[in-house]
Specification:
Largest interface: A-B, 34 and 41 residues
Order of helices and strands of chain A: EEEEEHEEEEEEHEHHEHEHEEHEHEHEH
Helix content of chain A: 10-25%
CATH architecture of the largest domain in chain A: 4-Layer Sandwich
CATH architecture of the largest domain in chain B: 2-Layer Sandwich
Shape of chain A: globular
Shape of chain B: globular
Strand order of the largest sheet of chain A: 7-8-9-10-11-18-19
CATH class of the largest domain in chain A: Alpha Beta
Oligomer: heterodimer
CATH topology of the largest domain in chain A: Metallo-beta-lactamase, Chain A
Number of strands of chain B: 22
Number of strands of chain A: 19
Helix content of chain B: 25-40%
Structural class of chain B: alpha+beta
Radius of gyration of chain A: 20 Å
CATH superfamily of the largest domain in chain B: DNA ligase/mRNA capping enzyme
CATH class of the largest domain in chain B: Alpha Beta
Number of helices of chain A: 10
Number of domains of chain B: 4
Structural class of chain A: alpha/beta
Radius of gyration of chain B: 26 Å
Largest sheet of chain A: 7 strands, mixed
Strand content of chain A: 15-25%
Number of helices of chain B: 20
CATH superfamily of the largest domain in chain A: Ribonuclease Z/Hydroxyacylglutathione hydrolase-like
């Protein structure tokens, strides 16, 4: 029995009459996490993890946001729904759906390495697993995060000795918070772009204990910038806003930085393949841990990933969705970018 | 050893051996600033092993060791080690866009970051001995090398085998780095490394020391460049004050004869003497103390041939007989810069031109031609003649003030170029494929179609002309609107219309449409047009009739 249909509004559970991460306004939406390609504006009621609510509030404005904690069941039309940590960003969840003995899990975005703030990815047994595969090719093989943090810290130190400001581009929700601790080890003051700052303060208000940051303001003294780190969304790259940091070096934190050509295209001084998505092995491990017989591969390298799953004896299928599958902010057509407005 | 990759700490002293070379390549590929690249090269050339330095000069100037293993074997061995199906290797390759890098990314993890401990010349020496060995021996060497290397080294090692070090280092940049390292004029260095030498026997000092280089007889003059005419041509005033020449579509160059030696420089200040054997006999013919500006261009019986033929000659060290016959290179001279050892650049163009004509009349040679002056009575007449540029094998006119000196760089006012507009046609994108290099994992290579009744007929590919932002938008469209997948190629919903510009059109039986375009590129994205409004195959055939014969 199919618990999820792939419709033009997104993933729909007919039995429970709700959508998961719909890309058009619907009556009832279950949201995996707060990134703009998953949490979209306009639905009447949202259900999300308690940690995701403050994020939805700053991104989508006021609305009806029902929350639930990890593993606590919620019923819609007799369909049992529960959320389980996905390890992608703060509050990110996999959605487990159970109805008449059948269990499906929608992964949302996930990573299998525990980053200390997003919750540890929890494998959930199911019959059918709908998995993202943003990095679903074997060339995506992440180094352990501590090694990447070492690389980032070494890069910052070398910029410091050259008298440069280090500008790190990272997704303002998720990676910007993740890199705070490693960066704070080598840098007394961390400055941020307004978009990062807004997320930061919203999370602090919600009770998160994060290393302190300062927002870059027009009157931020130049001395404060020198040798320190600025964290900004990639949309700030090359904008006039960057001028006041000169001399500076730029570094991009994204899984796409795994490939030389992508690093060169971005013209940054350094690329760090630090991702909030699972790498190839992480995806395979996650799929196997669910025990699912059928796996729908969505947003990413669906064709290759599902074909490989089929070759290793699973029922791998490919589904097209409207999720960006990107690691960096992409403006969504028609939706005002609330982060940038206040930047 | 610090155990950290160099790209995150620019400027640290290089550790020795192959790893230093790998770190250099990594840094050159990551750094965007020319000065940082220069520093990285200077750092390398100041500290590296003597034989390795010579080999780096050789590799970066296109003298790589002979290829001993083909791509398919490398890929096969890689999949043997990682246990993945071959199709998955291919998928990965189409996303990465670079074979050497794909293999480096897919090989099982390295033992550590330390690196192999061997020198660059160690691997090159081995590669050379493999030329005569069996496939088993080659395989053992490659697998052992992969095993002992770190990831950056594996990438560079694969590059050494597969060739093509296109890593953002121009010949000029390397020359400047060497000049800075050994404190000798860049033009001297360029001359020295442009010559014939064997990297396996020569020492760095023999190649580049001050004693080895001596007086620089090769030095070219800076090229004087023209501005494009954007305004009304009439604003130039009376045509009588101007010299008009066809604008050729070759490589701008200088031929210099001094001290019994001949030097051919490209506008990129690359020494190209060895590339074009056609010029070699000019050395005996021409007098010393002569420098001419002109066009390096393939030509038969004084008629220029398409640039595409010149492309078959560039970038090759060894020219085949067939190439010499099909694309013989001539020099269309249009200016005189030095005569009898005297710098003529401050004299007026009219005087330089008269002397140039005399010289070419005296020293006749089949490859040395005078670029003709186009007689012009009125600008209107010239405008009409300009429409026939394609027939003349030119891309418009050069318009030079008769009393102008030969300046330096691009100075406005004395020299103008008046290029023809490209041919254009509106077409719809039907296939897309991911690009390579900095376009890795991005759909940037498109195939376009025109209408033929209710069918769409593909007629050209194009890869350039859009901004990065537009490419990102098209990429997103392709990802959402692909219909079928044939290996790396996606068929795409025929919806996006582009104006395709091109420089020429020829009949071709290799293409379904029956035509082949020259220099096709996307001139603009026609958001205002739908697929019903694109051009037809008949339109293309009419263009072929008009311009392709």
């Amino acid at each position: 029995m199919a618990l999820i249909d792939f419709t033009e509004n997104g993933m729909y559970c007919r039995a429970g009459d709700f959508y998961i991460d719909p890309w058009r306004p619907v009556d009832r939406a279950v949201i995996t996490h707060g990134h703009s390609d998953h949490a979209r504006w306009g639905s009447k009621a949202y259900l999300c993890h308690i940690h995701t609510k403050p994020i939805l509030e700053i991104r989508l404005g006021p609305g009806q946001y029902d929350t639930v904690d990890w593993g606590v069941p919620v019923y819609m039309n007799g369909v049992r729904i529960s959320l389980h940590p996905a390890g992608h960003i703060i509050g990110s969840a996999q959605v487990r759906i159970e109805h008449e003995g059948e269990v499906w899990v929608v992964s949302g975005d996930y990573k299998t390495e525990n980053d200390g703030i997003s919750g540890a990815f929890e494998p959930v047994r199911c019959h059918t697993f709908i998995s993202e595969c943003t990095f679903g090719l074997p060339l995506y093989k992440w180094k352990p995060q501590e090694d990447i943090y070492d690389d980032i810290r070494n890069w910052i130190r070398s910029n410091q000795s050259a008298g440069k400001t280090s500008v790190l581009f990272a997704y303002s929700l998720g990676k910007a918070q993740r890199i705070l601790r490693p960066v704070a080890d080598v840098c007394p003051t961390i400055l941020t772009h307004g978009a990062v700052y807004n997320v930061h303060t919203a999370l602090e208000r919600a009770g998160w204990d994060l290393p302190a940051v300062q927002r870059v303001m027009p009157d931020t003294p130049k001395d404060l910038l020198k040798g320190n780190v600025v964290i900004a969304p990639s949309s700030a790259e090359g904008s006039p806003w960057m001028k006041k940091f000169a001399p500076y070096a730029t570094g991009i934190c994204s899984g796409w930085m795994q490939v030389r050509g992508n690093r060169r295209r971005r013209n940054a001084d350094a690329g760090f393949a630090l991702s909030d998505h699972a790498d190839w092995q992480g995806l395979l491990d996650a799929v196997k841990a669910t025990g699912a017989e059928r796996v729908y591969a969505t947003h990413g390298f669906q064709a290759a990933f599902s074909r490989y799953l089929t070759e290793i004896g699973l029922d791998g299928r490919e589904v097209k969705t409207e999720f960006g599958g990107e690691e960096e902010e992409q403006p969504t057509p028609g939706v005002p970018d609330l982060d940038e407005e206040t930047a | 050893m610090t155990g950290q990759p160099s790209h995150i700490s620019p400027g640290t002293p290089a550790t020795g051996g192959f790893r230093a070379f790998a770190d250099l390549v990594t840094e050159l590929g990551t750094t965007t600033k020319t000065n940082d690249k220069l520093d990285a090269l200077v750092n390398f050339f100041s500290h590296a092993d003597d034989r390795d330095r010579v080999w780096v000069i050789a590799i970066f100037s296109g003298r790589r060791p002979r290829r001993v293993v083909n791509s398919t074997l490398l890929a096969t061995w890689c999949t043997e080690l990682n246990g993945l199906p071959f199709w998955l290797f291919e998928e990965s390759y189409h996303t990465v866009g670079d074979l050497a890098e794909t293999i480096a990314l897919l090989l099982p993890n390295t033992a550590g970051d330390e690196g192999s401990g061997h020198a660059l010349h160690h691997y090159i020496g081995k590669l050379k001995t493999l030329e005569k060995e069996s496939e088993e021996t080659r395989k053992a060497f490659v697998l052992d090398s992969w095993r002992e290397m770190n990831e950056a080294e594996r990438f560079v090692f694969n590059k050494l085998i597969t060739g093509g070090f296109r890593i953002g280092v121009s010949q000029k940049l390397m020359v400047n780095a060497l000049a800075k390292t050994v404190k000798v004029e860049p033009s001297v260095i360029a001359h020295r490394i442009g010559g014939n030498w064997d990297p396996s026997t020569i020492r760095f000092d023999e190649l580049l020391s001050e004693e080895a280089t001596g007086t620089d007889w090769s030095k070219p003059y800076p090229f004087y460049l023209a501005h494009a005419i954007e305004d009304d041509i009439e604003k130039l005033g009376e045509p009588a004050g101007w010299q008009v020449e066809w604008k050729w579509d070759g490589i701008r160059g200088q031929i210099i004869k001094r001290n019994g030696e001949l030097f051919v420089w490209s506008r990129g200040e690359e020494l190209m003497t060895e590339k074009f054997p056609e010029y070699h006999s000019l050395c005996d013919l021409l007098p010393d103390g002569l420098a001419m500006d002109g066009e390096i261009i393939p030509s038969i019986d004084g008629k220029p041939l398409p640039f595409a033929l010149l492309q078959t000659r560039i970038g090759r060290k060894n020219v085949t007989k067939k190439q010499l016959q099909e694309a013989p290179i001539a020099f269309f001279a249009y200016d005189l810069l030095e005569y009898e050892g005297i710098d003529w650049r401050t004299r007026p163009l009219s005087e330089r031109r008269a002397q140039l004509e005399k010289i070419l009349a005296t020293y006749q040679h089949p490859t040395l031609l005078l670029s003709p002056v186009v007689a012009v009575d009125s600008w209107n007449e010239l405008a009409e003649l300009r429409q026939q540029s394609r027939e003349a094998g030119a891309e418009g006119f050069m318009i030079k003030k008769k009393d102008s000196p030969y300046g330096v760089g691009r100075k406005r006012g004395d020299w103008w170029k008046w290029k023809i507009d490209p041919l254009t046609i509106d077409a719809v994108m039907i296939y897309a494929q991911k690009g390579a290099g900095r376009r890795s994992n991005l759909y940037t290579d498109y195939t376009f179609a025109v209408r033929d009744g209710d069918k769409l007929i593909s007629f050209t590919k194009a890869y350039s002309g859009l901004t990065d932002k537009e490419f990102a938008q098209v990429d997103a469209f392709v990802k959402r609107n692909s219909i079928e997948k044939f290996g790396p190629v996606r068929t795409v919903k025929p919806e996006l219309v582009f104006e395709i510009a091109f420089e020429g059109i020829a009949a071709s039986n290799r293409h379904k449409s029956g035509v082949a375009l020259r220099f096709p590129r996307m001139l603009r994205w026609r958001h205002d047009k739908t697929v019903d409004e694109i051009n037809t195959l008949d339109d293309l055939k009419k263009m072929l009739e008009m311009y392709g014969k």
